[in-house]
C-alpha cells in the first residue's frame, strides 16, 4: 500500500521510518528495504547510521559518488567487483540510494541498469524528503509507483515534514493540460496527523511577512548576530552575500559559504566545520543555497530564508533550534533581495504560490505551519505547473493503442527521463586530494581505475554550458587524457579557478550565473 510519515523536521524520521519498514518487511515477507534519498550529500550520513545498527555487510550504499566504471585486473578491481555486482542487482538486505539511481534504473532500457528491477519487487521502499520529487516528471514517477504497488507487491512509505498530497485531485480549470496523476489509493498515515502530538516540536517562530533588503542591507543585519544561517535561491546570491559580509568586517573564518560551486569533499568538510564550531559555541554565519535544507543536521538560533515555496521555508526552519535545547524558540525570517536576479522555473512558481497564500492568510507569525496550509500551498503550486510530464514519457509507455500491440518505446522513455539535466558538464577541481589525483593523471603516474574514479567523484562539480564558455574564455580549463587507447579525457579546472571559500569562480564572481543549488 501507500503510507506516509509526516513529522516536523527534527522529529526522527530516519529511525522511525526504518522501524516501520522492518515491521512491514516482516509482515509482508519482503526481501529487502530500499531507502531512497534526494541528495548524494546526505546519503553517506544515512547509510552510516544504518551500518552502525545493522552491520557493514547488510547495507549497500549506491549513488553517483560511488563509481564502478573502468576495468583493470588489479587488486582494487577485484575488491570492487563484489560491490559492483551487488550494486547492479541490489542484492543486499538494505539498500540506500538516490532518487536518480532508483527512478532512472526503472525507466532505463539498458540491461545493466535494469538488473535491479526484480529486487525492487516485493520490497519495502522508503522515500525520504518526497517534496523533492521534480514536478516535470511527477506524472510518470507516480504512475511507476502505481505499478510497483499493484503489480509488484511493493510497500511504499513517503516521508516529509511538508508532505505533498499525491492522492488528491489537482485538476485546475485554469490549466490547458491537466496531467497530474492522482494515486488510485489513499495514502495511509502511520502516525496520526494530530497537531497536539506535534506541539513538542514547536521550537521555532516563523515570521512570514516578506521583508525586502539589498544585499548590503542583509549583510549588515546578519553581521549583528553571533550565529545565523541565511539560505538564498542562487549560487550568485550566495557568493555576493558572502563577500558583502566580509566587507562588513566579518572575519573570513567566521563566515562559511555552501553551494554546488563546491565539490562534494569541500562541502562535507565545510558542513563538518559548521557542526564543530556550533558545538564549541564559536560564532558562525552560514550562507547557503537550498542544498542545506534536505537532511543536513545543523542547528542555529536564527535562520533567514529568501522567499521561496512554503515547503522550502518549513525545511529551512528545520535547521533552526533543531534540538530544542535553546532557552528561547528559534526565529525564521522570510526576505527578498531587491538586487537579486529574477527567479524563474520552480523557484518562481513556489514564490508565487506562497505569496498568494500569505496575501489571503494574514497570520504571518506562527509557531508551526499546519498541514492544511501545506496542502493549500500544494493546491496553488500544482495549479501553476505547465505539465507534470514535460517530456511526454507516459505516452511512450502507457499509450493504450500501442500497448495493445505490445509496442513500448522504452529507449525513448529512458532518454527522456533524466532527473539531472545532462546539459551540465562534469568538471574536476584541484581541491585537497583532488589536486594530487589530477596531477597524477596529467603526468600518467596514476591511471583511471576503480579506486581513482571513486576518489575523483568527490572532486567533481557540474557546470552549465554558460559557465563552461566563461571558464574556457578565461583559460581556466584543460582536457586531461586518461586513456590513450580510447582517447577518453576529463575536464579539469586550473588551480586559480577554484576558491577555498566559494569553490568554482571566475575573475569576477559578481557575474556568476544565478544557478540554483
Please name the CATH topology of the largest domain.
Rossmann fold
Count, helices: 20
Rg, rounded, reads: 23 Å
**N-end to C-end Cα span:** 33 Å
**CATH-scheme architecture of the largest domain:** 3-Layer(aba) Sandwich
| Secondary-structure-derived class | alpha/beta
Instruction: Note poorly predicted spans.
Output: 66-79, 403-407, 507-516
Percent in strands: 15-25%
Range of helix content? 25-40%
Look at the structure and give the mean pLDDT.
Answer: 85
**Beta-strand segment tally:** 20
Q: What is the CATH superfamily of the largest domain? A: P-loop containing nucleotide triphosphate hydrolases
Q: Overall 3D geometry? A: globular
Q: What is the C-level CATH assignment of the largest domain? A: Alpha Beta
Major sheet summary line: 7 strands, parallel
Work out the count of structural domains: 3
Amino acid at each position: 500500500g501507500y503510507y506516509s510519515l509526516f513529522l516536523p523536521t527534527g522529529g526522527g524520521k530516519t529511525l522511525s521510518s526504518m522501524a516501520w519498514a522492518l515491521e512491514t518487511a516482516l509482515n509482508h515477507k519482503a526481501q529487502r528495504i530500499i531507502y531512497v534519498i534526494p541528495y548524494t550529500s546526505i546519503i553517506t550520513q544515512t547509510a552510516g547510521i544504518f551500518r552502525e545498527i545493522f552491520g557493514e555487510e547488510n547495507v549497500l550504499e549506491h549513488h553517483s559518488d560511488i563509481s564502478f566504471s573502468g576495468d583493470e585486473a588489479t587488486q582494487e578491481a577485484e575488491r570492487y567487483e563484489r560491490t559492483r555486482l551487488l550494486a547492479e542487482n541490489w542484492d543486499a538486505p538494505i539498500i540506500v540510494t538516490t532518487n536518480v539511481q532508483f527512478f532512472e534504473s526503472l525507466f532505463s532500457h539498458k540491461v545493466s541498469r535494469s538488473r535491479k528491477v526484480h529486487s525492487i519487487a516485493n520490497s519495502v521502499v522508503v522515500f525520504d524528503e518526497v517534496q523533492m520529487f521534480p514536478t516535470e516528471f511527477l506524472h510518470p514517477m507516480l504512475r511507476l509507483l502505481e505499478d510497483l504497488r499493484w503489480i509488484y507487491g511493493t510497500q511504499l512509505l513517503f516521508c516529509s515534514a511538508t508532505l505533498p498530497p499525491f492522492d488528491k485531485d489537482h485538476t485546475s480549470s485554469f490549466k490547458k493540460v491537466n496531467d497530474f496523476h492522482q494515486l488510485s489509493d489513499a495514502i495511509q498515515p502511520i502516525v496520526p496527523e494530530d497537531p497536539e502530538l506535534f506541539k513538542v516540536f514547536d521550537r521555532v517562530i516563523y515570521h512570514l511577512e516578506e521583508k525586502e533588503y539589498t544585499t548590503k542591507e542583509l549583510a549588515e543585519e546578519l553581521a549583528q548576530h553571533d550565529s545565523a544561517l541565511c539560505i538564498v535561491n542562487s549560487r550568485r546570491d550566495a557568493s555576493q552575500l558572502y563577500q558583502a559580509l566580509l566587507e562588513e568586517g566579518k572575519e573570513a573564518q567566521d563566515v562559511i559559504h555552501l553551494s554546488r560551486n563546491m565539490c562534494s569533499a569541500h562541502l562535507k568538510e565545510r558542513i563538518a566545520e559548521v557542526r564543530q564550531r556550533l558545538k564549541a559555541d564559536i560564532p558562525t554565519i552560514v550562507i547557503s543555497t537550498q542544498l542545506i535544507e534536505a537532511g543536513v543536521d545543523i542547528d542555529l538560533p536564527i535562520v533567514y530564508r529568501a522567499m521561496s515555496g512554503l515547503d522550502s521555508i518549513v525545511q529551512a526552519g528545520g535547521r533552526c533550534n533543531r534540538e530544542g535545547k535553546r532557552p528561547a524558540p528559534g526565529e525564521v525570517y522570510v526576505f527578498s533581495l531587491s538586487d537579486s536576479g529574477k527567479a524563474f522555473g520552480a523557484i518562481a512558481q513556489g514564490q508565487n504560490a506562497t505569496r498568494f497564500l500569505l496575501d489571503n492568510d494574514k497570520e504571518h507569525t506562527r509557531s508551526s505551519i499546519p498541514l492544511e496550509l501545506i496542502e493549500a500551498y500544494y493546491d496553488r503550486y500544482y495549479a501553476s505547473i505547465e505539465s507534470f510530464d514535460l517530456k511526454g514519457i507516459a505516452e511512450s509507455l502507457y499509450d493504450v493503442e500501442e500497448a495493445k500491440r505490445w509496442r513500448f518505446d522504452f529507449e525513448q522513455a529512458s532518454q527522456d527521463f533524466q532527473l539531472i539535466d545532462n546539459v551540465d558538464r562534469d568538471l574536476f577541481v584541484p581541491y585537497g586530494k583532488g589536486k594530487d589525483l589530477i596531477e597524477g593523471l596529467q603526468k600518467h603516474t596514476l591511471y583511471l581505475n576503480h579506486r581513482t574514479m571513486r576518489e575523483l567523484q568527490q572532486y567533481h562539480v557540474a557546470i552549465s554550458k554558460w559557465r563552461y564558455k566563461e571558464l574556457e574564455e578565461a583559460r581556466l580549463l584543460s582536457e586531461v587524457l586518461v586513456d590513450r587507447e580510447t582517447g577518453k579525457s576529463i575536464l579539469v579546472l586550473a588551480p586559480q579557478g577554484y576558491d577555498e571559500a566559494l569553490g568554482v569562480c571566475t575573475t569576477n564572481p559578481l557575474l556568476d550565473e544565478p544557478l540554483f543549488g
